Automatic annotation (TrEMBL):
Transmembrane intervals: 59-82, 94-112, 124-141, 148-167, 206-227, 239-257, 269-288, 300-321, 357-375
Protein name: DUF1624 domain-containing protein
Source taxon at top rank: Bacteria
One protein family per Pfam: HGSNAT_cat
Domain Heparan-alpha-glucosaminide N-acetyltransferase catalytic intervals: 15-230
Keywords, ordered alphabetically: Membrane, Transmembrane, Transmembrane helix
Length: 383
């Protein structure tokens, strides 16, 4: 991890402001849904789908992995264009960054008990690390056409595995929460002690479902390569909209026999989220980089340039606050974060869902203040 002081903007040829904005918007949304004031009172769009289907919240993580793929092309593109060679030092940097991300995710899972016998091994940062590692290597070692083919192969192979391979101990393929092939894989390799505790015997960021998540990253790589091409801006945007709509349509059609499901990261889900991400990035690119629209953009850019930092700290700090106990007037002892919410945010609201949303928005705004100061001081923490 390295703290640097860098310019707040770079030439258009080396950095897309729209990509920083789209990343920041995604991370801000991730923080919003991960930190409600009260987990018992949440508006439906801010919750994950219970199993099959999707909500806006289900799009946030795949959007981020898609952005990881796009960012890889800008960070490593020089090594596949002939202007530089991807030598051993570049590979080591990729491995080092992946290991750092993975260890940061493990630390969040360990904190504060640090009990290796029950700690959850997978996680959001762990999946980002694995997708970044695999997609970076594939970007450097394969061609654009090979990457396109790999997306299709990954999604079809995963579909066949999940729908045709009999699940050991069950006897037939299925997509039920605790008896599908991915769940069997998680509890066999990771064991129930090291998976997502609410699910008990499977993990939403588990091992087998990381395979199609790599497909999401590859869709981002294909998109980033197209954006870095010498084509005109109108042509780039037109094709992004066209391909985005076709990808979205493909996901909706595939949903008929391989349901959209975030926990399983189904192939239809990859296409749905990937298509919507392409459309979202195309709109941002047209407005911000082509039309030079700036109103309301820079706050999210501040989130975008320190995305991993704010995600990690936004997960760590509430846990630290939970260790500080405060006694309420009724004698009940709660964590500091819960105390602040109950004392200063919730009282003005009659609807507990509005209060819970206000708590989440307050948390995001606090981080905006911190990140805006960092952005103005040109402080970027590179992981």
């Amino acid at each position: 991890m390295k703290v640097t002081s860098t310019p707040t903007s770079l030439p258009a040829s080396s950095r897309l402001l729209s990509l920083d904005f789209f990343r920041g918007l995604t991370v801000a949304a991730m923080i919003l849904v991960n930190n409600p004031g009260d987990w018992n009172h949440i508006y439906a769009p801010l919750e994950h789908a219970s199993w099959h289907g999707w909500t806006p919240t289900d799009l946030i993580f795949p959007f981020f992995l898609f952005i990881v793929g796009v960012s890889i092309t800008f960070a490593l593109g020089q090594y596949v264009t002939g202007s530089a060679q991807a030598g051993r030092s570049v590979m080591l940097k990729i491995v080092k960054r992946s290991a750092t991300l993975f260890l940061l995710g493990l630390f969040l899972n360990f904190f504060p008990k640090f009990d290796i016998t029950t700690v959850r091994l997978p996680g959001v940062l762990q999946r980002i690390a694995l997708v970044y590692l695999c997609c970076s290597m594939l970007f450097l070692k394969t061609t654009y056409r090979q990457q396109f083919s790999l997306v299709g192969i990954i999604l079809v192979v995963y579909w066949l595995l999940m729908t045709l391979v009999p699940v050991p101990g069950v006897g037939f393929p299925n997509l039920e929460p605790e008896s599908n092939l991915a769940a069997w894989f998680d509890r066999t390799i990771l064991t129930p002690a090291h998976v997502y505790k609410p699910a008990k015997v499977w993990d939403p960021e588990g091992l087998l479902s990381t395979l199609p998540a790599i497909g999401t990253g590859l869709l981002g790589i294909l998109t980033g390569t197209w954006l870095r091409s010498s084509r005109s801006a109108p042509e780039k945007i037109a094709w992004l909209f066209t391909v985005g709509c076709l990808t979205l349509l493909g996901g909706l059609c595939w949903n008929g026999f391989f349901p959209i499901n975030k926990a399983l990261w189904t192939s239809s889900y990859v296409l749905l989220a990937g298509g919507l991400a392409m459309l979202g990035l195309a709109i941002c690119y047209w407005l911000i980089d082509v039309q030079q629209y700036r109103f309301g953009v820079m706050p999210f850019v501040a989130f975008g340039v320190n995305a991993i930092t704010v995600f990690f700290l936004s997960g760590l700090i509430p846990r630290i606050m939970g260790l500080i106990h405060v006694t309420l007037p009724d004698g009940k002892e709660v964590g500091l974060r819960d105390y602040l919410y109950r004392s200063f945010i919730a009282p003005p609201f009659t609807d507990p869902r509005n209060a819970s949303l206000a708590g989440a928005v307050t948390f995001v705004l606090i981080w905006f203040g911190i990140l805006w100061w960092m952005y103005r001081k040109r402080v970027i923490i590179k992981v």
